[in-house]
Amino acid sequence: MQNELTLYNTLSRSKEKFTPINSGMAGMYVCGPTVYSDVHLGNCRTFISFDLIYRYLLHLGFKVRYVRNITDAGHLEGDRDEGDDKFTKKAKLEQLEPMEIVQKYTLGFHDVMREFNALPPSIEPTATGHICEQIEMIKEIIANGYAYEKNGTVYFDVEKYNKEFSYGQLTNRKLEELLEGTRELGGQDEKNGRLDFALWIVAKPETLMKWLSPWGWGFPGWHIECSAMSSKYLGDTFDIHGGGMDLQATHHTNEIAQSQACNHKAPVNYWMHTNMLTVNGVRMSKSAGNGFLPGELFTGNHALLEKGYSPMAVRFFMMQTHYRSTLDFSNEALQASEKGYARLMNAIKLLDKLKTADTSTSNIADLKQKCYDAMNDDFNAPVLVANLFEGARIINSVNDSKETITADDLATLKSMMHSFVFDVLGLKSEQSNSGNDTALKGVMEVILDIRKDAKERKDFAASDKLRNDLAKYKITIKDTKDGVTWSIEE
Ligand code: AMP
Ligand code: ZN
Which of 54, 176, 364, 427 is most buried, with most CB under 10 Å away? Predict the structure, then answer.
């Protein structure tokens, strides 16, 4: 049933069969958020895409070690080796300790991931928790001759590295081309080469987050943390490394160089990159001002939003586009996803009520195979969704007595719909699983009891007031022959 899992490897620019280093196991490292501000929906797309990949590997039975770091030190403004680090800058702005900034936005990130029903990674290491490992790695790179120190800052020597290895292999660029795209070194630059990048950065008097190293007080460069933490938890060479496409040219290119220069091995067998979330064709980012936050999306409280959208409708919206294609945000697309999500959930609810027959009018085994074929083809979630909609169509037809299904086929269809919708796509039923919903149901029971008491006392003014007050929140109470019901207008 599983056949072969293939995935697109940025390194070879082709789809390849997935062969893990250790049979039945998979090691995956994904670059996590820089926790100096709230994650926007674009960041979420990348993490939700890798959640899908993690979930499918688990579904196929792999024992997965999924490492996703938290960048809580070393990320400089503008990704260059100059300026304040992002945490110090934000800490000064908000008049907080840098670690208060880190704590605040790490907790916020976890809340958002939970809302989107993303599974937590197996290990979530922080850069500040791995300063020793980063220092050791830098020492090794210097000892191997690929880095040099200048005034307390350590630089990676890209041109020297490129004599033995191909520095631009991930983006398929030659060193000469890369050099053309960078500015000339000025008189104040202390690096030897234009492409050289910092492994360790000397602390300025005002630097708040700093550690003592063999090169004096300073802090690690952004790229070295991922090399140090991925090799610590997954080994010098591991299966999958992921992140957004924007990380390919610099962050991941430098990660490969550092790991190779330290361990004499290529660190990663499969590099996977997710495409960007755009708004009207422009990449969503903090700087472009189009980076709305998940909270704003759920409430609809943003100029670009016509209304609020539930976390599961948004997750489903993301699943309807392949992770390597750009995904353009629009209210229309989200509203279509809301409907599609509801259609799937309603069909799943009907599964328990279907009557079986001696023959099936549809080929369920074939449909199930198509679901696997889609996901085995580089995690093609949109094709999977199309097959699940076909499943929903069959369920509705059987329910309307337009088609028939055998008991065996119904069992297959049920397990297929459940495992692909809930386990693989990571969707959940919003009514039954939300703590808020349970609380709302409880509150409504209390209110309806008070209303019943008022009516029994013939206090119709009080019972009408309750009904009218609830209407302000779009909650409608109806007296039916079977009792009182309530509903929320969508
Ligand atoms: P950062 O917190 O800036 O380090 O970014 C965290 C992750 O979000 C990285 O993997 C980025 O590539 C990714 N990312 C940033 N912007 C977008 C976007 N508009 N769409 C998809 N992924 C993004
Ligand atoms: Zn990284």
Answer: 54
